[in-house]
């Protein structure tokens, strides 16, 4: 007996049906010039070799290299838009890919997978490389860097551990434990990182709400005290450093925060949201903080004042990741399977704000019922009711 995947074949509440209808209607918008892919997009990183290219990890089990600045094609007689922007595909996994990292030194791209392993491919040939296996649960994040001229990979998992790998041999150098729940994000402290140094400072964050710091070398891994740093009430989904070396965080407690290096990682500012915050980015050129939220929105905040400046509306599912590119370009990705490109330049933001306001006013105008000829106003209806009461 076959089973249907069509949600229309199952009982659903009125609110669920309304949500489906709303998202279906919203999916037709072209805000941000969407690039449509076949499956949910779960991660995004820049291409270190080309400012117009990005890498995304898909739930379909592949990594794609996308050119965000070329034209789009469509299939005749189809509502689905396909794109010719895919410049490379790295395939093999049969489970969703959650994260992606690139190493130019070893000409390798890595992807963390739900199958508990890290897959790799040769960038130039797209051929599968080593498969790193050692975790007992989903791999949630991966990061590659160089220590003393040697290429190193660190993976973070839902099993609450991190593993340090030798990229050249595929050997597991060590397992790092400290978190009590799944680890969701990794970030290298740029303040003291140099490829030829003997160690690197790595920050990790997870669903235990803790942020931990580690000094990692080829033969050692030591946690930095005091530990852990507690800045959020629940899961921390993203970590990013700005040009001042301050740490930016995104959390399921519905906030994005800036933790000040100069004040021993104390909270410097917080940005409140109506739902989980999935990612955060800082545009130094414009002085903007950008956040990705589960409520489908991409928000632009004034870094200095902390005030909301603009909301980019376009995605029709949770926004998962953000990436800043040169020339104040912002890329957002979502589980709606679209990649969207926005401009943070002052003149483009001003135009976007005007267009959003015009659209809002237009919708409000549509909501006002048009009075048909011969119909009574509310005041006239009330007057008539009084007259009828008097006549009884």
From TrEMBL:
InterPro entries: WD40/YVTN_repeat-like_dom_sf, WD40_PAC1, WD40_repeat_CS, WD40_repeat_dom_sf, WD40_rpt. The keyword Repeat applies. WD repeats lie at residues 132-175, 270-311, 312-352. PROSITE patterns: WD_REPEATS_1, WD_REPEATS_2, WD_REPEATS_REGION. It holds the Pfam family WD40. Gene3D superfamilies: YVTN repeat-like/Quinoprotein amine dehydrogenase (2.130.10.10). Keywords: Repeat, WD repeat. This is WD domain-containing protein. The lineage of its organism: Eukaryota, Fungi, Dikarya, Ascomycota, Pezizomycotina.
